[in-house]
Design goal:
With 197 residues, this protein is α/β, with parallel strands linked by helices. The radius of gyration is 17 Å and the shape is globular. α1 (19-31) links the parallel β1 (5-12) and β2 (36-41). The protein has helices spanning 19-31, 57-68, 79-82, 89-99, 111-114, 123-129, 163-171, 184-191, and strands spanning 5-12, 36-41, 74-77, 103-110, 133-135, 152-153. Strands 3-2-1-4-5-6 form a 6-stranded parallel beta sheet, with helices on both faces.
Length: 197
């Protein structure tokens, strides 16, 4: 019997998806024991501090599909769009495990989130069942020797690119073609996304 496929789940708003997201996903898929990385889109949250900055789920998921084209091991995932709100990571992972019983799932989080991981909903459940993979973020060092069993620290490239920077740059009239996966900038221009009203 074949071992279960190991799927890394990288969640986020992806507003928009940028090369930093894709480099991280590609690194984890190629340089760890993860077979595929699924980019799990978080739904529009009406309680978000600036909900007007978050464009529609449809556009953000379409851009994930464009970004993942051509990769055999990076895929967009719309699971959280179909689940009751609010969407808790623990519940989303449980749903994926039921939906894909022949896969083993790990959650991929930045070291900034690891520092507050004990505040996550059902964080103990995630630790027991979904072996977190931590990647470095500037200003949030992690001592690998302090990590619990089953938690992995990877030395993925640190990319100081944010979706906020890209949105502001587009609104200011800058071309972000080299900051975005191939085809995403064209989609943004075509649909006039992130421009000033």
């Amino acid at each position: 019997m074949n071992p279960p496929r190991h799927i890394g789940i990288l969640g986020g708003s992806f507003n928009p998806v940028h090369i930093g997201h894709m480099i991280l996903a590609d690194y984890i898929a190629q340089f760890t024991d993860v077979d595929e990385v699924w980019l799990m889109l978080s739904p529009l949250n009406p309680l978000k501090e600036h909900p007007e900055e978050l464009i529609s789920d449809r556009h953000r998921f379409a851009m994930l599909g464009i970004a993942a084209q051509g990769s055999p091991y990076i895929k967009p995932c719309d699971t959280e769009l179909t689940l009751p709100k609010p969407s808790y990571t623990a519940n989303s992972l449980d749903h994926l495990s039921r939906q894909y019983p022949h896969c083993r799932f790990s959650i991929i989080i930045g070291s900034d989130n690891w520092h507050i991981f004990d505040r996550w909903y059902r964080h103990d459940h995630i630790l027991r069942h979904y072996s977190p993979i931590i990647y470095p973020r500037p200003g949030y060092p992690i001592d690998a020797d302090t990590l619990p069993a089953g938690v992995t620290l990877v030395q993925a490239p640190v990319m100081e690119i944010s979706s906020t920077f890209i949105r502001k740059s587009i609104a200011a009239g800058h071309c972000m073609n080299y900051f975005l996966p191939q085809g995403v900038n064209e989609y943004i221009v075509k649909h006039r996304l992130y421009t000033q009203p």
